[in-house]
Structure formats: structure tokens, C-alpha cells
Amino acid sequence: MFMTVRFIQRYFFQPLQKMQDQVKAIRSGNLAVEVKYDGTDEFGEIYSEVNLMRIRMRAQMQRQQDNDKRRSRLMASISHDLRTPLTSIQGYVEGLQDGIVKDKETYDRYLETILIKTEALNHLIDDLSVFAKQELGEFSLNKDRINSGALLNSYFKQKESEFALSNVNLILERPFVSTFIEVDRYRFVQILENLMSNAKKYTDTTVRVYTSVKDYQLQIFIEDDGHGIPQSSIPHLFDYFYMVNKKKDQKEKMGSGLGLAICKNLITAHKGDISVTSSEGNGSTFMISIPIDL
Ligand code: ADP
In angstroms, rounded to a whole number, what is the distance separating the alpha carbons of residues 37 and 14? Predict the structure, then answer.
């Protein structure tokens, strides 16, 4: 009789008691300690299931914490990116209001700067809005079957006038490939806009655009002759918030490190791809490819 009680105590109540303690520890949030059982009986399986549950819960908690951290970093970054051009616009407007600007030339320069910063702000808000939608899983495309030649001609016609006002040369190798692609016109233009605005920002003298077809894909190349991108940066270039030279890009180029990540996401959503080749000192060529809609 005594033996039976000891047997039940040792092989039944003790493992159960230990299990209860460990489940209590998990419930109170301690997910770090491994749930282990040394015996070879049926309890082993239950212990290993509970241990698996603990590992999964810990991974889920870690993901949640990472997401929370990412969100707060994102909020800080967004506020900073919006505040910088706004503060600058405010400064110029106040300068004009105070009447410190006397000559027409400076007056026009102030207005021109306000316009450029407002455009950059608009562009940034577009990028941030896509980014926020993608983060919240609320992003969708309104695709249509569109003629690539017509789309590119209309977009680049407007770019020609914009570049004519700048000191950057724009070479368009017409005719552009004329084929059908299935795209969200607004989003597709946003991809081109991001790449063209980078090319214009980072080039030395010239931006060249040309198209071709390879393996049933329409390819669009945007080439600049700027300082190029270090090879070590290329693997990170399409990551959110990545900038080659954060201080300089943010301050001088009003960058946010969002543009290329958004391009990558948008083109992937169109079943296409984006890539870059670059040589330091000689410039970069960005290529987007998108399946032809046969
Ligand atoms: P940003 O809004 O800062 O331009 P992007 O995601 O578009 O962000 O670009 C990320 C970084 O890649 C930029 O900060 C810049 O350093 C680099 N970059 C992008 N395009 C070019 C280019 N054509 N030539 C040189 N560097 C570039």
C-alpha cells in the first residue's frame, strides 16, 4: 500500500505539480525558462507540447515588441521629415512678411525656394501615405490595361518642361516601346516620379531615359551621370529609411529614405522588378521591368 502511494506520488503527482508550476510561470509572463522533463513516460510528450507553446508565445511577443518599436521609430521619423521642410517654408514666408527682402531678385528666389520645398513636401506626403497604407495592409491597386508608349510620352512630356527649367539635361530616347502593360496609372507614375526625382537630385549633368523589351518584360532605364552609389550600399538601397549618407541626403537633398523602398513595393505589386547598376564616380542606372500584357 505504502509502495503504491509512493509510486503515484513520484510518477504522477510530482510531474503534475512541476507542470503546474511551469504553466503558472508562463501565465505570469516568464517565457524564458525551458519546460523540461527528464522521464520517458507519457508526461514527456505533454511537457514538450507545453515547451513548444512557450517558444511560439515568446516569438509572438518578440514580434509584437519589434513591431511596436518600428512603429514608434516610424512616427518619430515621419514627424521629423514633415517638420524639416515646413520649418524652412515658414522661415522664408516670415522673411517675406517682415519686409527684409528689398530687391526683386531675392524676392523671386525666396518664392522659388518655397515652391520647391512645397513640391518636395507634397512628394513626401505621397510616399508616406503609400507607406502607411502598406504598413496597415490597406493598400490596393486599380489596374488598367494601358499602352506603355502613350503613358511614357505623356509623363515625360511634362518632365521635359520641368527639366528645361533646371540645369540638368534630359535625354529621352524616343520612340518608347509601345506595348500593353497592366498597371495602376497613378502608382506607376509615382514609381517613375521617385526615380526621376532621385536621378535629377543626384546627377551631375544629364539624365537619360530609354526603354527595351526582354523576356516578355518591358524595361525602363533611368540613367544619371552623378557620383554613383557605393557597392556596399546597394543591398540596402531598397530598404525603408535607408540613405547612403544620412546627414547629407536628408539636409541637402530633402531625402527620407522612403522613395526606393516604395518603388520596390509598388513594382512588386505590379509583378515587376527594380534593380540598379552603379559605378562610383560615373553614375547609376535604375531599371524597372514589368510583364507585358499579351
Ligand atoms: P530619398 O528620399 O532619400 O531619396 P530613396 O529611397 O529614394 O530616398 O533613396 C535612398 C538613398 O539612395 C538616397 O538617400 C541616396 O543616398 C541614394 N540614391 C538614390 N538614387 C540615387 C542616384 N540616382 N544616385 C546616387 N544615389 C542615389
Answer: 11
C-alpha radius of gyration, the chain, whole number: 29
Question: CA quadruple 152, 153, 158, 160: dihedral positive or negative?
Answer: positive
Best residue among 256, 260, 263, 274 to mutate for probing ligand 1's pocket (most ligand atoms within 8 Å of CB) is: 260
Please write the tens of the pLDDT for every residue from 215-254. 999 999 999 999 999 999 999 999 988 899 877 776 666 6
Confidence of residue 1 (pLDDT cuts 50, 70, 90): low
Q: Report which protein residue has its CA nearest ligand 1's atom 19.
A: 198
Residue with the smallest CA separation from ligand 1 atom 2 is 255
Q: Which pLDDT does position 88 carry in this prediction?
A: 85
Q: Answer yes or no: is the C-beta of 283 below 6 A from any ligand 1 atom.
A: no
Residue ID of nearest Cα to ligand 1 atom 14: 243
CA nearest to 288, candidates 207, 234, 210, 221: 221
Query: Does 265 sit in the ligand 1 pocket, CB within 6 Å?
Result: no
Name the nearest CA neighbour of 247 among 237, 257, 239: 257
Q: How many Å apart are CA 242 and CA 227, to the nearest integer? A: 17
- Would you state the cell numbers that stand for residue 134, as one nine-digit string? 502598406
Tell whether the model's pLDDT for residue 128 goes beyond 70: yes
